[in-house]
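Each field is listed here:
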Amino acid sequence: MTESANTHVDPQDTISILVATDIHLGFDYSKKRGGQSDESFVTFEEILKYGKDNEVDMVLLGGDLFHETKPSQTALLKCVELLRKYCLGPKKCKIEFLSDSEHIFRHCAQKHVNYKDPNLNVSMPVFTIHGNHDDPSELYPVCYPLGFGTVGSMDILSATGLVNYFGKWTDLKRIVISPLILKKRNTHVALYGLSYINDQRLWRLYRDDKVHPVLSIFFLCM
């Protein structure tokens, strides 16, 4: 049985996405089950190395990169070192970003995808949301240009230009989830992400019809 021309997919059109979640950098596994104290960093390095060795187009993190929203300076330093080691390089990123960067990254210091930053050479971009462990809402409020928000570990990483932090809610009266529209040659993907919100609060938002995803043809949700 031969493959029809209509179903053939050119490998150069394929968007390869490495998905990882709940890495919990900074958690001391030796105190819980006899593991290594730096086990979370070993795991994170294995993930990034796998992505680089297999030349994935991007890494997608589903939250809880850090075990705490205010990690130790050591944990933050090790994370930055690993991201610099594996995500920066001369290889050109093949993904086009078609969404409105100013809107998607409105809560970030840098309002564009990091591989478009002229001061960085990003070969393997990392996109991430925050989870319940690194939820910035537990911390003190700060003055944002738009008058909302709190700062957490993901905001700091985003400011370094090493990750693309999206899906951070900024208004609990009405949540509009706009997708990341990604393109590689003839392939388009709409990637939706909503960072952690307390379960009961999120249920009330859905009940009151205050969560509104902007629909697209082909999408992934985080």
